[in-house]
Design a protein that fits this description.
By secondary structure, the protein is mainly alpha-helical. It has helices at residues 13-28, 33-54, 60-68. The protein is built from three helices and no strands.
């Protein structure tokens, strides 16, 4: 089966098209300042929505210590 013809894809077609366009753009090595600006604005909006909904999640240090096998008191 061709990987592009998966019958049970959970990715909406419009999102898949957007991702494919971004991959083509990245592979070309050309940068589009307007697309980059829009992406930054979108990421900022999403980050703020998550912060508003869930608050600041300060879990990075704890997770890194756990991965290293360090005790919480370290």
């Amino acid at each position: 089966m061709d990987m592009n013809e998966r019958p049970f894809s959970t990715t909406p077609p419009e999102l898949r098209a957007e991702i494919e366009q971004a991959v083509r753009r990245a592979m070309s090595g050309r940068r589009d300042p307007e697309v980059m600006r829009q992406a930054c604005e979108h990421m900022d909006r999403v980050r703020e929505e998550i912060r508003q909904k869930h608050g600041v999640q300060d879990i990075g240090v704890e997770l890194i210590r756990e991965l290293r096998g360090e005790s919480p008191e370290s």
